[in-house]
């Protein structure tokens, strides 16, 4: 028993250290004075804000379409359901630069969809909308899968009882299914947002400018070296750590009183 | 109140076949059948949760076949209660009343009255997750009853409870039915529960209704071997009928009363239904309330909770099962042991035949 616990702890710790050491090393090496200057740089400030905002938009818009899709996948049987499930998981599997190229081919100015949006005044190449689109494409599975698992964990009989008590399907969804699933949905949304913020490959293909934080870090690293890239990375990581810890705390399971 | 006319349902590989039923206002109908026989599917179809492939549903004289569940005004209580875990007991009970847009004061009054009636008034502020099974069941009943449904549909409502609570809630259901006069459609696989509660019994197996009548009539005259077995009748003996002569593995049975003339015409090969209580060891001499008397070998004795099960064997290979209470066993004039030969009589009352 003792050996078992020791081995399990040891293996887990190695993995945690694998994540913590590089991040800690980067943090420790950062000069607080340079960090302060970095934050006050308009380019950095703008880029981080743009990253957070674009990922948030991507998450919010996807929630409107993704939550109903998750409900469909959890509750209804239809031909080709596993294929749909596979399609949703696809963005996680393909290289994100490939995803960016695919998006560029459809939402670029040459394809009819890109042209149609262009006529409506919405462009995706080199715009904030393009950044959100690329982020949404690659991070959507996190939200849809979490919401689907959430709906699956709700006994369908609760919805049926609500119907027999006089609730329409809409009422039953909003008064029973959704309130019982908001935690997994929020958790999925946090993951989607986080994944969106960190996206590089798809975004760089579709919208190099305006520059999101991951692209800014890469550009500074390429042009000026590690010393100039590091402070932006540290600021972004610290900010994400604070925001996500807070959101995770909100989405935590309530302890049984 | 509620009438089903040739209702058929197809759910995956499962099928309900031409179900017709009539639930009278104020009745307590129990649908008895083994697990996996389609009882819940039927109940949910009545509630409007599955679309039938054929037939009609009538509620209060109106064709409700295509009505959605929310328009049917039928209450459903499930085996595992299906209480909304994110709402308090009060909010659970008030759920339907809020949807009916009743004034808040009236809702509170109705909820409190019903909670008082079901003795759960002290639980109103609690969440369902922290209640016992019996308490949750009362909340589920209250939630359905406050809406004064035309029919209360109960899906194995006592199955998940321990024996003591089950007994208490069984009496509670009888009280609710008696005092509120609500029409109840209750499905179960539990025989004592069915006989305790039903004033009309429907026997179902494999998606079809096999027999329906008042419980005492069904018990007295099961129409098939399957029904007899479902009713827990201990002995179903194969035999033949030649005119008015009834032959079984035990020899000639002296049955005077016939169950149904239509069956009489058809049948030559028959089964005799012999409930355990009609098999007596050491039968009375003199009077003759028996259809058969003879010596049998005591092949086995199983000591159960409060009674003893006796397996009796006849030289022809025919076997009978009966039981004695511990007290009856103690009062026997002679002590009996496995292997001993004992006189056995089958009482006329309770025995009947049906075609094979």
Structure description:
The complex is a heterodimer of chains A (257) and B (356). Chain A contains twelve helices and no strands. Chain A is mainly α and 257 residues long. Chain A has a single domain (33-250), classed as MetI-like fold (Orthogonal Bundle). In chain A, helix 2 (32-40) packs across helix 12 (226-250). With 356 residues, chain B is of the alpha+beta class. Chain B folds into two domains: 2-220, P-loop containing nucleotide triphosphate hydrolases (Rossmann fold, 3-Layer(aba) Sandwich); 234-355, RNA polymerase II/Efflux pump adaptor protein, barrel-sandwich hybrid domain (OB fold (Dihydrolipoamide Acetyltransferase, E2P)), CATH 2.40.50. Chain B has eleven helices and 20 strands. Chain B has helices at 39-46, 69-72, 89-99, 104-117, 133-145, 163-180, 191-197, 215-220, 225-230, 261-266, 326-331, and strands at 2-11, 14-23, 28-32, 54-59, 62-63, 74-77, 151-155, 183-188, 200-205, 208-213, 235-242, 245-248, 251-253, 269-274, 279-281, 290-303, 307-313, 319-325, 341-347, 352-355. In chain B, a hairpin with a 2-residue loop joins strand 4 (54-59) and strand 5. In chain B, helix 3 packs across helix 4 (104-117) and helix 3 runs parallel beside helix 5. Classes of the chains: A mainly alpha (257), B alpha+beta (356).
Keywords, separated by commas or semicolons:
heterodimer, A: 257 residues, mainly alpha, MetI-like fold, B: 356 residues, alpha+beta, Rossmann fold, OB fold (Dihydrolipoamide Acetyltransferase, E2P), 2 domains, six-stranded mixed β-sheet, five-stranded antiparallel β-sheet, 11 helices, 20 strands, 28% helix
